[in-house]
Amino acid sequence: MHISEGVLSPPVLLAGGILSFIGLVFGLKNLKTEKIPEIAVLSSTFFVASLIHIPIGPTSAHLVLNGIIGLLLGWSAFPAIFLGLLLQALLFQFGGFTTLGVNTFAMAFPPVVLGYIFKKFLHKNKYFLTFSVSFLAGFLSIIFSAILIGTALYFTEKSFLPVIIALLSAHFPIAIIEGFITGFVVAYLLKVKPEVVI
Amino acid sequence: MRNIIFLLLILFIFTKMGFTHKINNFAYREGNQIKGEAYFADGSPCIKCKVEVYNEKGIKILETLTDEKGKYNFTINEKGSLRIKVIGGEGHLAEYKLEGLKEEKKEKKEIIKPEVSKVSQNEKLIPTLKLTDEEMKLAIKETVDEAVKEAIKPETEGIKNLLMEMKKDMDKVRLHDIIGGIGYILGIWGIIVILNFRKKAKL
């Protein structure tokens, strides 16, 4: 889910850049010093997760793990994901520098919103509820990110539905896998170290 | 916290198994023919991807598809530099700039066919080649060029393949890049912690 350099038109890039900048400012404003080590670890998790490539059917997609980041970090997901994407562009040429804004927004915004909504339902003593809510957060983050990427591509490829369908079908299995990962990790963390989640 | 680190370590082990969707694109000339290959970061081919060729002015001059091995080739008369785009869909794109050939001042003079002239003295027909020195040089040069090209073809082919393999290897995601990236991330957040504490100390 990295849009490469030279695919998008300047207005789309600019819009993505501005939206991501707002998210970054928000994220850095709300930063708690105690949370920073956690952000750093999740930031590197995101950085590495994109290298894990799961072949399913004709296409293959990679893990994103933005659902976990949104649920655990809230607005700080923006700087965490931004830094991960920046280094991916720098070291592996995944995505690109001009598309950094669009990519950051597409991957950070859905989990932040979903995390905000779902966080209320997380409860230490209700394992099943916590698991299912986290599963949904992980699952929907990928789906909405794919839709946002498809929307950004729409302005250049001019074919909305085929792109969206291709993106969704490629990411649907990933979304399920990420749902499970998010569910297990968050439920487990809540049990053994609740202060990380809340 | 320890669990997240544990998760990170597990992910780490997995990274050796697969890589993302970044496309690499590489092409070279062979006379009028241009051969190229497009492959993903893990070296697997980009099958049936759209290939677009643009000339120096940015005008699209050609469109083709890659084959099952991710290879493409086309013939072109354009001598200038070319930009070859491979589009993998879903926002993946790789561009390769192929340098233009140097404009050789090849005013191909038609080599004059041997004229048959009558030599009156012997009253026999003796074919003579009426070639100036320059034309002679050109004709020799052309023949030699062709012969040399033919002779070194097997070797150049081997070198090209080797280059391709090396390039593929270089484009792969390396473990030291991954470790370096994680180091950068932790370092940058460390700096943010320091700055935050300084701010608090001032207050």
From TrEMBL, chain A:
One of its GO terms (biological process) is transition metal ion transport. Signal peptide: none annotated. The keyword Membrane applies. Its main location: membrane. It holds the Pfam family CbiM. It is found in: Cell membrane. It is a multi-pass membrane protein. InterPro entries: CbiM/NikMN. Keywords: Cell membrane, Membrane, Transmembrane, Transmembrane helix, Transport. This is Cobalamin biosynthesis protein CbiM. It comes from Thermodesulfobacterium geofontis.
Automatic annotation (TrEMBL), chain B:
The chain crosses the membrane at residues 178-197. Keywords: Membrane, Transmembrane, Transmembrane helix. This is Nickel transport protein. It comes from Thermodesulfobacterium geofontis.
